């Protein structure tokens, strides 16, 4: 089964974060109360007609495979084939990670 986001929504796979204390103890992701804020784009919806020409279309800024930073509580959690994803709106995307 696949999910195809509609309009200007993006399906992302949250990146697992592993934290380490100053003493070298690794804190597993399950112990963290905060949702991750970085993820990889898995699928994108279609561009919506932009009435304001100063605003770029989503496909001009993002592509599948990009790593993004998104709003902490933005989006909807989706479970598909035992994997966790988040479906977010374009407005919840804060930045693209440049490698």
Under CATH, the homologous superfamily reads: GroES chaperonin
Rg for CA atoms: 15 Å
The top-level CATH class is Mainly Beta
What share of residues is helical?
A: under 10%
Q: Give the overall shape.
A: globular
Biggest sheet descriptor:
6 strands, antiparallel
CATH topology: 10 Kd Chaperonin, Protein Cpn10, Chain O
Nearest-integer average pLDDT: 82
Number of domains: 1
Q: In whole angstroms, how far apart are the ends?
A: 31 Å
Number of helices: 1
Quickly give the structural class.
Answer: mainly beta
User: Helix and strand succession?
Assistant: EEEEHEEEE
The low-confidence runs, each spanning 5 or more residues with pLDDT under 50, are: none
CATH architecture: Roll
Proportion of beta-strand residues: 35-45%
Strand order of the largest sheet: 6-7-1-4-5-8
Total beta strands: 8
What labels would you give this structure?
99 residues; mainly beta; 6-stranded antiparallel β-sheet; two-stranded antiparallel sheet; 1 helix; 37% strand
Write a short abstract of this structure.
The chain has 1 helix and 8 strands, in the order ββββαββββ. It has 99 residues and is mainly beta. The chain has one domain: GroES chaperonin (10 Kd Chaperonin, Protein Cpn10, Chain O, Roll).
